[in-house]
Amino acid sequence: MGLIKTLRRKSSKISNIFSKKLDIQNKNIILTGSNTGIGLELARKLIVNNNLFALVNKNYENLKDFNKKKIKIFQCDLEENDLSNDLSYEINMFKPNILINCAGTFGFPDQDLSKIEIENFKKVLNINVFSPLKLTQISLRSKNLEQIVNVTSEMGSISNNISGGYYYYRGSKTLLNSISKNLSLDLKDKNINVFCIHPGNVKTKMNSSGIISPDISAQKIINIISENNGNLSGLFIGINKEIIKW
Q: Domain count of the chain?
């Protein structure tokens, strides 16, 4: 099994060499989860030609060397859904064009049916669902928003669930998917596209057995944002723009 994963990772790297690398320029972008994993790689790539509003929890060590003229770092506790009036004011002044909800948590390690605790579930929902929804509400107020990107997971697919378990994570991502679809319909007349993207089987702290690197996943997410294809708005897609069943 280890050999197979190694070969898959090498194949992914080779494929990435020949894949296109699009860019985004001169946009004001809100990004959550920007201190680690996919979010950090998105931040590294996006800050080159854009202004970044990075939401972090307590730790932003990986962002300290970024160009301070192009990034604003705002600390808030998404687990407690701590989105203050100060944050609302700062976002309104920032006038975001793109909102990328990349922060996510797998939740507590024991997700067996008999061990589910509602209070623990609420903390996962706050990060994976309620904070993205609240940030969408706030970002819409400045009337500059063009895209909403919700980084979700294929584990939120009801159709593809054949193994059960993982109640916190599956349930939260399924709800995020449903909200993404709803937003795409409600915001269509405002010409705001909503992308619901499974980032792939990415090797991160949350998924140590992942196949592809955060760098590859981040670039492919940027490709989708750069193209801003309205035909993909409101669909559940992978980073290669393949359609995933809800």
A: 1
Pick the more confident residue, 97 or 60.
Answer: 97
How many other C-beta atoms are found inside a 10 Å radius of the C-beta of residue 152? 28
| CATH code of the domain covering residue 172 | 3.40.50.720
Task: List helix spans (H) across the chain.
Answer: 2-18, 37-46, 85-94, 118-125, 131-140, 167-186, 214-227
Confidence of residue 228 (pLDDT cuts 50, 70, 90): very high
Q: Looking at the domain assignment, is residue 83 inside a domain? A: yes
Distance of CA 197 to the CA centre of its chain: 8
Q: pTM to 2 decimals?
A: 0.91
Give whole-number Cα distances, 92 to 25, 30, 81, 88, in Å.
20, 11, 18, 6
In a domain, 80, yes or no: yes
Domain hosting residue 203, numbered range: 25-238
Tens digits of residue pLDDT in 1-47: 554 445 454 554 545 555 689 999 999 999 999 999 999 999 999 99
**pLDDT top residue among 108 and 26:** 26
Picking from 152, 160, 155, the residue whose alpha carbon sits closest to that of residue 234 is 152
Assess if residue 20 is contained within a domain.
no
- The b/e string for 23-34 (b: 16+ C-beta within 10 A; e otherwise) is ebeebbbbbbbb
- Residue 13 domain-assigned? no
CA–CA gap between residue 34 and residue 40 (Å, rounded): 5
Token code pair at residue 30: 């809100």
**Taking the CB of residue 37, how many other CB atoms lie within 10 A of it?**
23
